[in-house]
Design brief:
- This protein has 18 helices and no strands.
- It is mainly α and about 450 residues long.
- Helix 1 packs across helix 14 (about 305-340).
- The mean pLDDT is about 95.
- It binds phenylalanine.
- Phenylalanine binds next to helix 1, helix 2, helix 10 and helix 14.
Length: about 450
Amino acid sequence: MSSKQRSEFSRFGFIMAAAGSAVGLGNIWSFPSQVTQNGGAVFVLAYIILTVAIAYPALLVELSAGRHTQTNAADTFRKIDGAKRWIGVGYLGLICSAMILSFYSIVGGWMITYFCKSLFTLVGLETWANAIQQRVIIYDLTFTSLFYLLTILIITAGLKKGIETWSKILMPMLIILLVGLIAYVLTLDGAMIGLKKYLCPDFSKLLDFDLILNAMGQAFFSASLGGGAMLIYGSYLSKKQNLQKVGASVLVFDFSIAFLAGLLIMPAMYAASAKGISIFDEQGKLIEGGGVVFQVLPALFGSMGKVGHLVLAAFFLLMIIAALTSSISMLEGVVAYAVDNQYMNRKKASWVVGLMLWLVSVLLIVKFELLFGLFTKITMQVLIPGINIGLCILMGWILKRSKLIEEFRSGANLSEDALVLKILPIFFKYIIPIAVTFIWIRSFK
Ligand code: PHE
C-alpha cells in the first residue's frame, strides 16, 4: 500500500463530490414517482425519518471506515479485521460499485442520446434526430461508450483536478438547470394540478409495509451506500473535518434535490395531461421512470417548438450531469483499489478498470432482457443491504470502541463523554444491522 500522503478533498470539494455521488438518476428518475405512488407526503415523511434514523448513521459508517483506514473498501476490511474473516465483504463492495456502474452507464448513455436528439431537432437536423432515437444496439453501444469516456477522463485527471474540480463545476450547474426548469414548467397549464398530486398525503398508506420497504431502498440507493463510493470518498476526507456535519450536509443536499425534482416532474406530467398526452398506463397507474423521461416529457416539450426542444435539451443535460457525478464515484471506488495496492498508476488503472467495466456494459446491452433487471436486483436487493450489515459489524463490533470514538471526535470538537459518541456505537452495533436485516428479509416475500 502506498506510504505517500493520501490526497485530500477540500471541505467544499468533498461536499460537492459526495453530494454529486448521492444526487443521481435515483433523485430525478425515481424519487418523484416513488412519492406519487406511495402516498405523497406520507412517503416523504417516511423517507425523511428513515434517512435520519438509518441512512445517515449508515453513511457515517462508510465515511468513518474510509477515513479511519485511508483506503478502499476491500483493504478497509483487511486493515481493521486482521483475521480477514470479513474481507470478502470488502470485495463485494467493489463488485457492487462495478455492477451499478455497468447498468447506470447504459442509462447515462440514453440521456446523452436524448440530449443529442433534442439538439439535432433544435438545429433542424431532423433525420439525424429520428435516426438516433431508435433503440438499436449500435446507438446504445455508441452513447454508453461516450458516457464511459467522460467518466474515465474525469477519473484519470485525479482527485483534485478531476473529481473535485468537475464536481464543483457540475453541481452548481445542476442546481441552476433544475431551478430554471421548475420555474418554466410551473408556468404551464395543468402544472398546479401536478403540484397538488405530488404531495397530497394518502394516509391509508401509513401502515403499508411496502411504503417503508420502498422508502428504505430509495434512501440507501440515493445516499450511494454499498461500500464502493462513499467509503472511498471518506478516505479522502481530512481528519480536520467534522464527519457528522459533512455527512449531514450531503444528505440534506441529496434530499433537497430529490424533492425539487418532484416539483419539476409532477407538474410537467400534468401539463402534458392538459395537452392530451396520456400519462397513465393500461392499468390506470401513473407512468413512471423511463416512461416519464423518454415518452411523456419529449411529447410535452416536443410539441412546443424551438423553446420546447431547448428545454428538453436542458433537461437531458441535467440528467447527464446527475448521472456523471455519480458514475465517477462508482469508478473511483474500484480504481482506488488498483492504485492503493500499487498494481498500476491512476491513469492506467482508470483506463484498464474502465474498459473492463465497459465490456460488462456491452454484455448487458447485448443481453439486455436477461441481464439488466438481474443486475439492478442483485445490487439493490442483495449487495447494498448485505454490505451495509458487514460494514456495521466491522465498525461496531470489530474495530475497538476507543478508535471509533477517536474517529468521530477528530475535527468535531466533542468532549469524550458527548452524547452522540454514546449513541452512535449503538446505531452501528444494533439499530442499523437489525433494521436492515428485518427490511431485507421482508423484501424477499
Ligand atoms: N446515489 C446515486 C443515485 O441516486 C446512485 C449511486 C449508488 C451512486 C451507489 C454511487 C453508488 O442515483
